[in-house]
Specification:
Layout (H helix, E strand, L loop, with lengths): L1 E4 L4 E4 L3 H11 L11 E2 L3 E6 L3 E2 L4 E7 L17 E6 L5 E7 L6 E6 L5 E9 L2 E2 L19 E2 L2 E10 L44 E2 L10 E6 L32 E3 L2 E5 L11 E5 L5 E5 L6 E3 L16 E4 L11 E4 L6 E6 L5 E4 L5 E7 L4 E6 L26 E3 L4 E6 L8 E5 L3 E7 L11 E7 L8 E7 L8 E3 L8 E6 L4 E6 L5 E3 L21 E4 L2 E4 L5 E6 L5 E6 L13 E7 L2 E6 L13 E6 L5 E6 L11 E4 L2 E6 L4 E5 L4 E6 L5 E2 L4 E9 L7 E2 L6 H10 L11 E7 L5 E8 L5 E6 L5 E9 L8 E10 L18 H27 L1
Parallel strand pairs: 3-12, 5-13, 14-41, 23-27, 49-56
Antiparallel strand pairs: 1-2, 4-6, 6-9, 7-8, 7-10, 10-13, 11-12, 15-47, 16-17, 17-18, 18-19, 20-21, 21-22, 22-23, 24-25, 25-26, 26-28, 29-30, 30-31, 31-32, 33-34, 34-35, 35-36, 37-38, 38-39, 39-40, 41-42, 42-43, 43-44, 45-46, 46-47, 48-50, 50-51, 50-54, 52-53, 52-55, 55-56
Length: 836
């Protein structure tokens, strides 16, 4: 039995099944059916925890009987009913909790939040019950000789002490600020906000990653060759500068990447073929190959949270799914492979066609519509009971997930099925919202087939009205032979969109009643005629209540899905590089309120255009966050991009290498003079901040502003940017008296080095700390060193000045006569020279 408390984001698992079954074996003797029925004594138990607790804090109230309902089996059979807990507060007021119905093992739980200090009394009461076969669900349970026996009433009492001061909450661990890798320790539950997986590798239309973070910088973690790529070299291979073939339109490479728990999975090419090489698993952080399997070719993943009284949590490792016909005959079962090892786990046959989605616990579901029989059903790949789940009645596997080694027929694996009203012939599902599906019939436009108009309809998915027709609307044929197509939608916004190719316009309609809400919008750039909904390029998508549209124009248009208002545009001008005015753009990924655009076209020429870039743009403002040289994998390149755990991976056909972009580790060093310096002297503190990613270990850490050109220099053989800047470094110290001192801030240069001159002000040993606080490209790092300061040097004693000699009058007269004689001699000498 799993107990969860949403408001505190905590959960407790109470393991009662073994105890309840053991107690039952003792309490009930083996017996056959009997007349008259027996009266069977029961024993009640109740606990309230934690005890004590503070006012306003929530306690768990757990109650059970010593005997579980003997007919209980899965959803069928009896449950103990009308269970109540009476609470008496310290002031004498009484409150009744319930009535409750037990789970299959005879227990139940609730929460209670006390509002006053003192002792509370809890009395759990079971009123007694006659055992039946069917119980409250109406589903038959297991047979039992105790059917029609009476289980007698029982009760139990406990108390709870409530104090004014709250008891401490369980530890809560913050989000990471330093470099992290998987596995994520199980107590770091808040890390779900930054961690994510990418499972839908085969869905070109599903480029929205709703979970985790995505890179805010073009910092490269690693690159890995997929095949020969880039410039071939030589003069005998076509035009000068000819490049290797990338797969172009119909033989694309790196088509269906999947990321599960920090591992990247993809198929490798074999010659010109797209994916007949080995299937590869690599570490997402390092690019290291972990395993290869030449015989498998999965295209999407699954993580399934199986919850039962005996088992809780996501099935270990998850699954890599290879659909029927993939490298096998079309009638071959679906195959589930272990992402950790690549080994085959189990198979499924008879999977129906339908509109696929993901269930709330990771189930693969398909909405199956049968118009001819007025039937709608939800197929679920976890529903089949006898093969996928442990057989009821076997204590070692009851209520547990047990499909390994089996091939299971899934033709009847439906969560529900309902009869629906008559729909137009040819109807199909177009969209799945939270509470309804949307479908259509007829022609959306164009001249082939003749434009006869179309019908849209919506059917409820709410449990209480499931299968009801919510509305049906007929739409006249578009005038002027417009080629109208159904556009992208956001499942959280009840709006569906239509694209008119010839006028390059969008319109929005209500999913609540089919009425026109907005549009048509002003015409986009005419080059987007070759894009739009359902076009060759993945040029439109919806997320965050916005519609994104782009194409051969190289202009991105962002509209508000609710109003149709154009919110912003973003341009990728190409100058003379392309004939379109801009670089043709396709949507690579949408994640963390950013949208990534890749440059690609239907059939890339060789050599490729120069100047193609991968663009990262803010979805709210349309502002560029970063760009880096990259050319997308042709028009279907929308497949080959995946975002998870803060990393973006893609194939860059400029060099046919897989690139992983994301925030990497850094390292800081710091040094100071090794000798003790005298007080009053200045010291030079110096050190480095370096990149510690696997492919660029110990290279300088560079600023976010310089990151694009710097990565192109390191990985793409581009010139070293002369104006690249480093990262800021904060210098602090603890003086000999353990007082904190902020020394200053400096910036490293493009060699990674920083330095700073500082004059300590007292004697003793200083601990100096250099801190790089991190950036969008690197996680933080720091280092320490020590500075010793000794006494100031003693000044030498002042020297006594010598006394000038004393001269008498006679001495002065002699000196004057000598000077006069010297002057006369000099004058005579010059006169003699003049005459000669």
């Amino acid at each position: 039995m799993k107990i969860s408390r949403d408001k505190t984001k905590t959960s407790t698992t109470v393991l009662l099944l073994v105890l309840a079954m053991a107690a039952t074996l003792v309490a009930l003797p083996a017996a056959n059916a009997h007349t008259p029925p027996w009266n069977i004594r029961t024993y009640a138990y109740v606990t309230v925890e934690p005890d004590p607790i503070g006012v306003g804090q929530t306690a768990f109230v757990v109650f059970w009987l010593d005997i579980y309902p003997p007919t209980a089996a899965g959803k069928g059979g009896d449950r103990w009913r009308n269970l109540e807990v009476e609470v008496t507060k310290p002031n004498g007021d009484k409150q009744t909790l319930g009535p409750f119905t037990s789970d299959p093992v005879g227990s139940g739980f609730t929460f209670y939040t006390p509002d006053q200090v003192g002792t509370y009394t809890f009395v759990f009461s079971f009123p007694g019950q006659v055992l039946s076969l069917y119980g409250p669900t109406g589903i038959e349970g297991r047979d039992s000789p105790y059917i029609n026996d009476t289980y007698l009433a029982s009760s139990a009492t406990t108390t709870l002490t409530v104090q004014q001061d709250p008891i401490p909450d369980p530890p809560s661990f913050p989000l990471p600020t330093s470099f992290w890798t998987r596995p994520i320790e199980g107590q770091n539950t808040e890390w779900w906000k930054v961690a994510s997986n990418y499972l839908s590798g085969s869905s070109i239309r599903d480029k929205f990653q709703p979970d985790g973070i995505a890179p805010n910088s073009p910092h490269i973690m690693w690159t890995k060759p997929l095949s020969f790529g880039g410039v071939v070299g030589g003069s005998r291979v076509g035009a000068e500068g000819m490049t290797f073939y990338d797969g172009s339109q119909y033989e694309n490479k790196f088509m269906s990447p999947v990321i599960i728990s920090g591992r990247l999975y993809y198929d490798t090419p074999l010659g010109h073929d797209s994916d007949d090489g080995p299937y590869v698993c690599v570490d997402l952080v390092t690019g290291e190959t972990l395993w290869e399997n030449p015989d498998i070719a999965p295209t999407f993943g699954q993580l399934y949270d199986y919850e039962s009284m005996n088992q809780h949590g996501v099935i270990p490792n998850g699954y890599l799914w290879q659909a029927a016909g993939r490298r096998d005959p079309p009638d071959t079962p679906w195959k589930a492979y272990d992402p950790f090892t690549g080994e085959l786990l189990y198979g499924m046959t008879d999977v129906p066609s339908g509109t696929e989605a993901i269930g709330p616990q990771g189930e693969i579901v398909r909405y199956v519509l049968n118009v001819n029989n007025n039937w709608l059903a939800l197929w679920n790949n976890t529903c089949e009971q006898q093969g996928l789940h442990g057989a009821i009645g076997t204590s070692s596997s009851a209520y547990q997930w047990r499909p390994i080694g089996k091939t299971v027929n899934m033709s009847q694996a439906y969560t529900w099925n309902v009869t629906i009203p008559t729909l137009p012939s040819g109807s199909s599902i177009r969209a799945v919202y939270d509470d309804r599906i949307l479908g259509s019939a007829g022609s959306f436009g164009g001249i082939n087939p003749p434009n006869e108009g179309y019908t849209m309809w919506a059917i409820s998915l709410k449990p209480e009205t499931r299968g009801d027709l919510l509305w049906m609307e007929d739409y006249a044929a578009q005038s002027g032979n417009l080629s109208r197509s159904f556009g992208p939608y956001d499942p959280c916004i009840h709006v569906f969109t239509m694209w008119d190719k010839e006028t390059v316009q969008w319109s929005g309609y209500s999913a609540d009643n089919g009425s026109l809400l907005w549009g048509p919008t002003p015409s986009e750039n005419p080059w987007n005629f070759y894009a739009g909904a359902g076009g060759a390029l993945l040029t439109d998508s919806a997320a965050y209540g916005k519609l994104f549209s782009t194409g051969y124009s190289g202009i991105v248009y962002c509209y508000d899905l609710t109003t149709g208002k154009q919110l912003w545009t973003y341009s990728a001008p190409a100058g003379l590089a392309t004939p379109y005015g801009g670089y043709p753009l396709g949507i690579a990924a949408i994640a963390d309120e950013k949208i990534y655009f890749a440059v690609n076209e239907h059939s890339s020429g060789a050599p490729y255009w120069k100047g193609s870039e991968l663009h990262c743009v803010d979805v709210n403002t349309g502002d560029k966050i970063w760009t880096i040289y990259a050319h997308g994998a042709s028009s279907w390149g929308g497949y080959g991009y995946a975002v998870a755990d803060g990393y973006l991976v893609f194939l860059n056909v400029y060099d046919m290498q897989i690139y992983c972009i994301g925030k990497g580790p850094s390292a800081t060093t710091v040094t100071a003079p090794d000798t003790v310096v005298p007080l009053g002297s200045s010291v030079v503190i110096r050190g480095t901040v370096t990149d510690q990613t696997p492919a660029a270990k110990d290279t300088p850490a560079i600023s976010d502003e310089s990151m694009g050109p710097w990565m192109e220099y390191l990985y793409m053989q581009k010139p070293c940017p002369a104006d690249a800047t480093g990262v800021p470094v904060t210098l602090d110290a603890f003086d000999p008296n353990n007082n904190f001192i902020h020394i200053g801030t400096t910036t490293s240069d493009m060699s990674g080095m920083f330095s700073h001159m500082w004059t300590p002000d007292i004697e003793g040993k200083y601990t100096v700390i250099a801190t790089f606080e991190g950036s969008e490209s690197y996680y933080a790092s720091y280092a320490e060193t020590a500075v010793g300061v000794g006494p100031a040097p003693e000044e030498p004693p002042a020297e006594e000045p010598e006394e000038a000699p004393a001269y008498t009058a006679i001495d002065l007269a002699i000196i004057a006569a000598v000077v006069v004689a010297i002057i006369i001699g000099i004058v005579n000498l010059w006169a003699l020279r003049k005459r000669t």
